[in-house]
């Protein structure tokens, strides 16, 4: 088990290397001079040239890459070109909002998606099933920015039940934090809930068709126990996979959602960083996100082993 | 070859029949057909969708403009019809490109195995760990905004997904006895891949392509929302919704109708995927859509 | 009063759309302490009958069940869901065919068995656990205490079936239904399980319904037998009576088609022609009539009712006295005699095949699975070598080296002087043409997306041979199919027909050697006989060599010239078939022979009098 | 300007808004003028939350790069030696008085002022700040503003003398803004100053969370008094919340989440009209949209084609579509209130047919670059449609700011759509960078000696009449040559909660909040 863990972690190294190279090169392809954003549009050419030298932009690309990756390996993600803050500090500052958003979305997925999926599967081919699966498709088919705009319009502007924007750290004002996170979390969570619902329904139906369910029925077990213990537990294994795969998707959703709700999270950090060509911040933030996603995949595999005794590492 | 044609028809008929009997497909296919017809027929409308009229801004639905006008006084209906072309391009060209490339990579990785597989799959793992939108965003930002580059970006993002699904499928297919039989009798590898593996991927690929189409449309819409998608004056539904959300309270119809178009199309692809999956009778967890 | 009585049971699937009568008018009864065997080939309705006794047939509208099922004084058909629950497990229990899928893989045995008890009795956790332990002991699982905490995957197949039986017995049922309880198990284990069921039935005074397709099992383990065909009971009565003096031509044909260890070696089996009817197509008359060698016009027009023939023996036949072309019609194969001659076709020389077991951080090879551990064998032209062994014995791994699907770790495999592991271009073409294969699973061995024509043409095209339609039709005719098959897909054919197509495909490039990997194991007895006969005919006609892999010694009795018995990757005994059957030298071979169902030494209760000759 | 077919809802809103603006102008003047005595009785304390769309990248005034919006924040923490009032006149601040004598300017500093960190404010500190801006090693974005300062000398603790290389009519203006903002030398030397500002201003820097908010707390020892003698500032705390989405920003104003916003686009503030909780005042602040034409290459090196371009553009249409009707049309960067404004300067009349004729039939391909920021893409789209109708074959490229400016600096474009905030502190700051042949933002690639001469004349003189004459000539020349086509000037009213009063505005409309107060 420990050996497996270490081996999987070791396998991350080539993947992360690929990620770093792709990320670095891709970002260097971005057109536009980063000094414009830093010095303002009326800065002189000489000032901009001097700043470029300061930022090391006049050295060869491989050199810049080595400098960056060398820093990363020693735990130094560099400094923001724009604000000169340490990138690591910026990321630490931005993580809570995104993590909270993701956690609430996942919580919604578990608390709503799984029970709804079970209900749909148990009531297969009834109006309940149709309604739930229909809602699922609807949620999957609504772009996040559209949903977010509608939610703001209805709840913040028309009904005025929640503030339309702003972020308060949970540690400072839990209630204020939560009330502001409701709409973003619903936005981000909508897809995850739908995906979990659909997967739960699908794999529960599949599990209910297995031989061991017939065996359990033949021993006279109650339907309720058969569904919740004998079928659901087996059905959860693919649900866990799919939910874990959603972590990456969740990050995409937060990019859009944080932008609309102006939440200071990783999504806005990355997008604004790309737009303002603050490449050290983008590199650092994406690297953190990617590493996180990869670690989640690893944890998922460990969760399998916990859910399914047949799997040993 | 006469036998070939009879077979393909024969082989697909049950799937097609089952598909046509499916409630979801009965909804999805007409919607998608409408989108396709709109995309193909839009040039017939001429420049109706481009004609601005600053005296008629943000009007609601009327006899003259069935779905109202936008912030530049253009006819929303004409623009939705025009925008169908973009959506169709995303769903066909970008997803098609990813399908071809991804299938190729997945076939090679899955069938050959060894270091090629390891190299390809590590790369795929890395690419998949990128949040889809961030990757697409960066690619578009690097290449420059526009339809062509958005298509490339979406294809880049979707290719590893296809590669992974195909590889998984190939790994299980290659142990099938009919594949072994073909190998034993000396069917050359390319022919073996083409004749014995590819046709069996059709179901999986069909379902996955439909799901990826919906993902791709959302991605294009999101790119457009962030301003990096299709560039004006070419209308795209995503950009129209984005523009419409700026005028939500001045004109509800502006974002609602293109939003509905996008929602219906994505829903159609999702439902088609569901119907296809049932028609092919494949319950596979890794086919659930991801963004 | 019988423990269970089933009257006029009719089960129809899709009654509203495309009705399929899976079971029609079945009457059965079982007394306490009695074993009733329900025999039939796949699709004959035996499992559906069993499931209806537990109320586990699909719910309406997918399925409609009529008739009455009485258990003791309870009319089961009138029960509601709650009532059914109190019957299942408590009064009737069932053991399913495949223990690897019948137990929940994510729950411990203890949990599953305790659940079965607590479903019926308000006992506490600890008490339920005690009872679960007792159930495991009853099913004779070694170390039952530790088993409680184990998951199904931690047990071997036989143990899993014991656990499944323990689960069924946990709540103390009066009637146990065992649906093909041993089909998925190795021969040695099969007998143990069947013996245990016998003992349990006797000790607990249960009624036992044994569902099986194997007449050998029936002969040794059943008091009475009901033969089912196309959803109906066509003959029923005391085992000795039915097997000894069958009145229904189907029963008789079935008996004749069953491979037997006590039959002369390499003697042709008597096959039943045709294949079972499609239940969805309603036809008047006797369902067996199209395949029946003695059918009259009346058989096709009027369905015969079950009529008594001897005490307690009923048969559904219009002329049960008609003489059948009996088993005596089997002809002796003249080529079987003699020693191998000429050069061997293929040769395994000290073949070793190890799969590395990697562990630890650096995935170092810490151990090897010795799948094949030094095997030397020769295949002779025109002869059949049966490679016999249980699952995991390495027989399939060995043949995979010959088929170039696996590279041996050591030793050489050669075909006609060609080193199979490194043939040159020309030699590779020869190997690809001259060594063909027929796999076990008729459903997986043909590409379902291709037409039969394409399937047959592919090897021919690869080797630039004549792939004309005429040639394809000729191939089909060799295996008893006609041109109509060419443009259809494998899905349109039954298992036996598919296996014929697979054989036709193998014959296409005119091979010298065909590897038959459990080629008939998945087929019903009547079809098995057809295919075995076909293989024997083709061998004679084309001077083919066969490498015949099987786990069942009886099956290859009619075709094998030589037999090699394999165990743990090694050959334990090897020699001419006659000698192996007649005087096996190795203990393991003897065990295999003894354990095989229907072996003369297994006659515990004299039931088999009619069976043994 | 209105045509009968305009959406009735828009019309009524506009009418309402017009009334509001008129009514509030007086209040605004009172608040902005020197007479703030009435503010004394207003509420004291409280937290003012400001919705701000343009987060500064640094709070170091020497490094601040935004042309003016940063000053809204910097004014919280910093004072300058002197202040410039809304009407352009200078009043004492950290300097009690100053004298100009040829090429030397001598400041006498206020006594008893200390920085927030306790460092005393004296001539050494003032000199430190000015030298820091001038020192090339600082790479101050404000260095150019003090380019004429030869030396900065500390005469004594209260006296500071600047010696100029050349006379500079703009020097005092600059000293009254970012280049003259006084930062604590102790804090500057301590490092990471841009994120931990220490000045002498009305508020003490408290916390800054990027993309979230920035907080300043009341400076209890602030030197400045209200005219009634009461202590300033009145507010206990000021919070700048960074919200970029205008829709959200408007919603925040509506719901009272913020009491003051920097700017809202017309389609948003149009919707606030009639809300009694909200005060909207047109303070004359505008944004000026323009199209710069690249005269260094075909086709716009041809004056006829430039004229055709000008005739092709329906400026009113652009205003209607992009500014919801809340705009002015002006010949240049000048607004009607500016002293260098001349209504007689008129661009070519809208005449698409004429343009088409002038272009001679074959569509003239041009590339228009625009910035990806609402509403610029919309305007670009509209221009595209208008240009097409007038015989051009325009290709619009919507780009990131950096990319667009890169392209423009390389003169790799034909027409560029951009906007600047006006008014600026001085017209020279608006015109020189863009129209001088040496200008840093000479997008058009002009080398027009007439313009250069006029601009130099205007910049060198302190006589407003001379300057006005020169700037009017400048504007005439630009419009006659059609180097640039000035589009509409959307209004940018001051929007705040009706409870908030006492906002004082800089010359260019940026806030000073020391006198601001919130009614409870």
TrEMBL record, chain A:
Q: Which PROSITE patterns match?
A: ABC_TM1 (PS50928)
Listed GO cellular component terms?
A: plasma membrane
User: Subcellular location, in the record's words?
Assistant: Cell membrane
List keywords of the entry alphabetically: Cell membrane, Membrane, Transmembrane, Transmembrane helix, Transport
Q: Which GO terms describe its biological process?
A: transmembrane transport
Per the UniProt record, one Pfam family is BPD_transp_1_N
Q: Give me the segments passing through the membrane.
A: 12-30, 101-122, 134-158, 178-197, 230-249, 287-307
The family note in this entry says: Belongs to the binding-protein-dependent transport system permease family.
The cross-references to PANTHER family, in alphabetical order and at most eight, read: DIPEPTIDE TRANSPORT SYSTEM PERMEASE PROTEIN DPPB-RELATED (PTHR43163:SF6)
What is the protein's name according to its record? Answer: ABC transporter permease
Which species expresses this protein natively?
Answer: Micromonospora endolithica
UniProtKB/TrEMBL annotation, chain B:
Q: What membrane topology does this protein have? A: Multi-pass membrane protein
The superkingdom of the source organism is Bacteria
Could you tell me which InterPro entries the record lists for this protein? BP-dependent_transpt_permease, MetI-like, MetI-like_sf
Q: Which GO terms describe its cellular component?
A: plasma membrane
Claim: Lipid metabolism is one of the keywords in the record: no
The alphabetized UniProt keywords are:
Cell membrane, Membrane, Transmembrane, Transmembrane helix, Transport
Tell where it localizes: Cell membrane
PROSITE patterns hit by this protein: ABC_TM1 (PS50928)
Query: GO:BP terms for this protein?
Result: transmembrane transport
List all membrane-crossing ranges: 27-46, 84-111, 123-144, 201-230, 250-273
Q: Which residues form the ABC transmembrane type-1 domain?
A: 84-273
Tell me its family: Belongs to the binding-protein-dependent transport system permease family.
Q: What is this protein called?
A: ABC transporter permease
Organism for this UniProt entry: Micromonospora endolithica
From TrEMBL, chain C:
Question: Which Gene Ontology BP annotations are present?
Answer: peptide transport; transmembrane transport
In what residue span(s) does the ABC transporter domain sit? 4-255, 357-593
Keywords assigned by UniProt, alphabetized? ATP-binding, Nucleotide-binding, Transport
Q: Where is this region: Disordered?
A: 319-343
Q: Does ATP-binding appear among the keywords?
A: yes
GO molecular function annotation:
ATP binding; ATP hydrolysis activity
Write down the PANTHER family for this protein, in alphabetical order.
Answer: D,D-DIPEPTIDE TRANSPORT ATP-BINDING PROTEIN DDPF-RELATED, TRANSPORT ATP-BINDING PROTEIN
Query: Hey, which family's this protein in?
Result: Belongs to the ABC transporter superfamily.
Q: Which protein, by its recorded name, is this?
A: ABC transporter ATP-binding protein
Look up and give the organism this protein is from. Answer: Micromonospora endolithica
Q: What is the lineage of its organism?
A: Bacteria, Bacillati, Actinomycetota, Actinomycetes, Micromonosporales
Automatic annotation (TrEMBL), chain D:
Its GO biological process annotations read: peptide transport
Q: Tell me which residues make up the Solute-binding protein family domain.
A: 90-442
GO molecular function terms here? peptide transmembrane transporter activity
PROSITE patterns reported in the protein's UniProt record: TAT (PS51318)
Signal peptide (UniProt feature, chain positions)? 1-25
GO CC list: ATP-binding cassette (ABC) transporter complex; periplasmic space
Provide the alphabetized UniProt keywords.
Signal, Transport
Name the family the entry cites.
Belongs to the bacterial solute-binding protein 5 family.
**Per its record, how is this protein called by name?**
Solute-binding protein family 5 domain-containing protein
Q: Which organism is it from?
A: Micromonospora endolithica
């Amino acid at each position: 088990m420990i050996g497996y863990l270490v081996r999987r972690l070791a396998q991350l190294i080539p993947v992360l290397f690929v990620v770093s190279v792709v990320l670095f090169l891709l970002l260097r392809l971005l057109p536009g001079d980063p000094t414009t954003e830093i010095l303002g549009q009326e800065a002189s050419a000489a000032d901009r040239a001097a700043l470029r030298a300061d930022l090391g932009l006049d050295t060869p690309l491989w050199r810049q890459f080595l400098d960056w990756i060398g820093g990363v390996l020693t735990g130094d993600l560099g400094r923001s070109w724009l604000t000169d803050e340490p990138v690591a500090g910026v990321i630490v500052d931005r993580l809570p909002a995104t993590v909270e958003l993701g956690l609430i979305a996942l919580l919604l997925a578990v608390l709503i998606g799984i029970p709804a999926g079970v209900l749909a599967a148990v009531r297969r081919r009834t109006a309940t099933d149709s309604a739930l699966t229909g809602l699922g498709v609807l949620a999957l088919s609504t772009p996040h920015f559209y949903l977010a705009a509608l939610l703001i319009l209805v709840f913040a502007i028309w009904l005025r039940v929640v503030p339309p924007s702003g972020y308060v750290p949970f540690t400072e004002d839990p209630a204020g934090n939560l009330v502001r996170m409701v709409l973003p979390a619903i936005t981000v969570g909508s897809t995850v809930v739908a995906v979990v619902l659909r997967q739960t329904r699908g794999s529960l139906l599949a599990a209910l068709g297995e031989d061991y369910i017939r065996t359990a029925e033949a021993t006279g077990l109650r339907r309720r126990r058969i569904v919740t213990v004998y079928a659901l537990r087996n059905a959860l294994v693919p649900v866990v996979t799919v939910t874990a795969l959603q972590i990456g998707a969740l990050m995409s959703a937060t990019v859009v959602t944080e932008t609309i709700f102006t939440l200071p999270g990783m999504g806005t950090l990355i997008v604004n960083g790309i737009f303002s060509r603050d490449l050290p911040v983008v590199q650092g933030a994406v690297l953190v996100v990617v590493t996180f996603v990869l670690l989640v995949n690893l944890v998922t595999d460990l969760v399998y082993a916990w859910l399914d005794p047949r799997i040993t590492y | 070859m006469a036998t070939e044609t009879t077979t393909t028809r024969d082989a697909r008929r049950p799937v097609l029949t089952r598909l046509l009997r499916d409630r979801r497909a009965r909804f999805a296919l007409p919607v998608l057909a409408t989108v396709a017809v709109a995309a193909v027929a839009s040039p017939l409308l001429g420049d109706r969708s481009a004609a601005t009229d600053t005296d008629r801004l943000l009007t609601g639905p009327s006899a003259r403009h069935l779905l109202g006008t936008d912030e530049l006084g253009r006819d929303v209906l004409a623009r939705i019809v025009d925008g169908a072309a973009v959506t169709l391009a995303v769903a066909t060209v970008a997803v098609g490109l990813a399908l071809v490339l991804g299938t190729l990579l997945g076939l090679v990785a899955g069938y050959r195995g060894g270091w090629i597989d390891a190299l390809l799959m590590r790369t795929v793992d890395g690419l998949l760990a990128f949040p889809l939108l961030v990757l697409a965003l960066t690619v578009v930002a690097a290449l420059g905004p526009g339809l062509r580059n958005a298509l490339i970006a979406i294809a880049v993002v979707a290719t590893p997904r296809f590669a992974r699904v195909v590889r998984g499928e190939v790994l299980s297919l290659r142990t099938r006895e009919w594949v072994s039989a073909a190998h034993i009798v000396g069917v050359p590898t390319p022919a073996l891949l083409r004749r014995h593996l590819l046709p069996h991927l059709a179901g999986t690929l069909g379902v996955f392509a439909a799901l990826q189409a919906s993902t791709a449309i959302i991605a294009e819409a999101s790119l457009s929302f962030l301003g990096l998608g299709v560039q004006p004056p070419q209308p795209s539904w995503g950009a129209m919704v984005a523009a419409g959300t700026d005028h939500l309270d001045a004109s509800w119809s502006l974002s609602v109708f293109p939003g509905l178009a996008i929602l219906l199309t994505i829903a159609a692809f999702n439902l088609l995927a569901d119907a296809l999956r049932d028609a092919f009778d494949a319950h596979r967890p890794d086919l659930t859509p991801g963004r | 009063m019988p423990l269970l009585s089933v009257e006029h049971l009719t089960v129809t699937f899709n009654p509203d759309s495309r009705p399929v009568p899976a079971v029609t008018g079945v009457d059965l009864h079982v007394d306490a302490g009695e074993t009733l065997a329900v025999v039939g080939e796949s699709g004959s309705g035996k499992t559906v009958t069993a499931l209806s006794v537990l109320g586990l047939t699909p719910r309406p509208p997918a399925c409609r069940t009529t008739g009455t099922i009485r258990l003791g004084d309870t009319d089961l058909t009138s029960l509601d869901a709650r009532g059914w629950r109190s019957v299942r497990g408590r009064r009737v229990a069932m053991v399913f065919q495949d223990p690897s899928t019948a137990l929940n893989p994510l729950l411990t045995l203890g949990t599953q068995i305790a659940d079965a008890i607590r479903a019926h009795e308000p006992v506490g956790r600890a008490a339920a656990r005690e009872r679960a332990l007792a159930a495991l002991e009853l099913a004779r699982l070694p170390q039952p205490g530790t088993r409680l905490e184990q998951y199904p995957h931690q047990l071997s197949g036989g143990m899993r079936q014991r656990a499944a039986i323990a689960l069924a017995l946990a709540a103390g049922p009066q009637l146990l239904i065992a649906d093909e309880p041993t089909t998925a198990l190795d021969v040695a284990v099969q007998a143990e399980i069947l013996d245990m069921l016998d003992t349990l039935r006797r000790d607990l005074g249960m009624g036992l319904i044994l569902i099986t397709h194997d007449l050998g099992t029936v002969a040794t383990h059943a008091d009475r037998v009901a033969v089912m065909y196309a959803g109906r009971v066509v003959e029923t009565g005391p085992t000795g009576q039915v097997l000894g003096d069958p009145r229904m031509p189907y029963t008789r044909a079935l008996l004749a088609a069953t491979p037997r260890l006590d039959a002369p070696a390499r003697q042709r089996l008597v096959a039943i022609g045709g294949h079972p009817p499609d239940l969805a197509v309603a036809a008047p008359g006797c369902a067996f009539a199209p395949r029946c060698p003695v059918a009259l016009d009346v058989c096709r027009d009027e369905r015969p009712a079950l009529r008594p023939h001897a005490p307690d023996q009923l048969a559904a036949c219009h002329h049960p006295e008609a003489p059948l072309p009996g088993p005596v019609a089997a002809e002796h194969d003249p080529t079987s005699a003699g020693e191998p001659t000429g050069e061997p076709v293929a040769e395994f020389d000290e073949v070793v095949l190890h799969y590395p077991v990697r562990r630890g951080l650096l995935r170092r090879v810490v151990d090897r699975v010795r799948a094949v551990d030094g095997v030397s064998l020769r295949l002779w032209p025109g002869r059949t070598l049966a490679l016999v062994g249980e699952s995991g014995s390495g027989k399939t791994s060995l043949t995979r080296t010959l088929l170039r699907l696996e590279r041996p770790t050591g030793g050489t495999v050669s075909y006609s002087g060609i080193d199979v592991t490194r043939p040159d271009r020309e030699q590779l073409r020869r190997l690809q043409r001259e060594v063909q294969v027929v796999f076990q699973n008729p459903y997986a061995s043909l590409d379902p997306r291709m037409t039969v024509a394409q399937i047959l043409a592919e090897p021919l095209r690869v080797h630039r041979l004549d792939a004309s339609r005429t040639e394809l039709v000729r191939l089909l005719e060799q295996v008893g199919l006609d041109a109509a098959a060419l443009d259809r897909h494998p899905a349109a054919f039954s298992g036996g027909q598919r296996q014929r197509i697979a054989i036709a495909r193998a014959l296409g490039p005119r091979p010298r050697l065909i590897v038959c990997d459990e080629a008939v194991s998945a087929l019903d007895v009547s079809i098995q006989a057809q295919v075995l006969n076909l293989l024997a005919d083709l061998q004679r006609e084309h001077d083919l060599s066969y490498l015949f892999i099987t786990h069942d010694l009886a099956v290859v009795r009619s075709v094998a010239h030589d037999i090699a018995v394999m165990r743990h990757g090694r050959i334990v005994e090897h020699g001419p078939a006659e000698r192996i059957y007649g005087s096996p030298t190795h203990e393991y071979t003897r065990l295999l022979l003894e354990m095989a169902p229907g072996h003369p030494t297994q006659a515990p209760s004299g039931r088999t009098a009619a069976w043994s000759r | 300007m209105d045509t009968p077919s305009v959406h009735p809802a828009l019309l009524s809103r506009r009418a309402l808004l017009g009334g509001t603006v008129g009514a509030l102008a007086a209040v605004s003047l009172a608040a902005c003028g020197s007479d703030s005595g009435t503010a004394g009785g207003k509420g004291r304390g409280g937290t003012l939350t400001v919705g701000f769309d343009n987060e500064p990248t640094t709070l170091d005034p020497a490094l601040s790069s935004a042309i003016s919006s940063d000053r809204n924040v910097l004014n919280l923490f910093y004072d300058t030696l002197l202040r410039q009032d809304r009407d352009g006149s200078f009043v004492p601040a950290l300097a009690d008085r100053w004298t100009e004598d040829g090429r030397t300017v001598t400041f006498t500093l206020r006594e008893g002022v200390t920085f927030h960190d306790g460092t005393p404010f004296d001539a050494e500190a003032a000199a430190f700040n000015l030298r820091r801006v001038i020192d090339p090693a600082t790479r101050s974005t404000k260095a150019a503003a003090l380019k004429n300062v030869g030396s900065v000398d500390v005469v004594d603790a209260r006296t500071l003398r600047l010696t100029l290389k050349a006379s500079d009519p703009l020097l005092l203006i600059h000293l009254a803004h970012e280049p003259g903002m006084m930062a604590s030398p102790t804090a500057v030397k301590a490092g990471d100053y841009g994120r931990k500002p220490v000045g002498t201003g009305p508020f003490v820097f408290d916390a800054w969370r990027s993309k979230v908010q920035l907080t300043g707390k009341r400076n209890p020892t602030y030197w400045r008094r209200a005219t009634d003698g009461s202590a300033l500032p009145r507010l206990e705390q000021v919070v700048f919340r960074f919200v970029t989405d205008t829709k959200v920003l408007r919603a925040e104003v509506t719901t009272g989440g913020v009491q003051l916003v920097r700017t809202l686009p017309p389609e948003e503030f149009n919707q606030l009209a009639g809300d009694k909780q909200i005060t909207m005042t047109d303070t004359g602040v505008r944004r000026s949209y323009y199209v710069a034409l690249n005269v260094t290459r075909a086709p716009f090196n041809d004056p006829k084609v430039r004229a055709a371009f000008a005739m092709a553009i329906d400026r009113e249409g652009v205003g209607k579509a992009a500014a919801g009707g809340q705009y002015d049309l002006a010949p240049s960067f000048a607004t009607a209130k500016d002293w260098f404004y001349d209504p007689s300067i008129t661009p070519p009349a809208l005449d698409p047919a004429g343009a088409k004729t002038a272009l001679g039939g074959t569509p003239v391909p041009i590339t228009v670059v625009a910035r990806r920021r609402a509403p610029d893409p919309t305007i670009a789209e509209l221009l595209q449609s208008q240009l097409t109708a007038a015989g051009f074959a325009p290709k619009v490229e919507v780009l990131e700011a950096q990319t667009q400016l890169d392209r423009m600096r390389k003169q790799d474009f034909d027409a560029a759509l951009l906007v600047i905030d006006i008014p600026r502190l001085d017209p020279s700051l608006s015109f020189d960078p863009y129209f001088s042949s040496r200008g840093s933002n000479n997008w058009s690639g002009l080398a027009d000696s007439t313009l250069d001469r006029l601009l130099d004349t205007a910049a060198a003189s302190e006589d407003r009449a001379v300057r006005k004459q020169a700037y009017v000539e400048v504007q005439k020349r630009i419009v006659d040559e059609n180097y640039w086509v000035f589009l509409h000037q959307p209004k940018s009213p001051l929007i705040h909660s009706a409870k908030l009063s006492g906002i004082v505005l800089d010359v260019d409309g940026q806030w000073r909040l020391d006198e601001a107060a919130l009614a409870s």
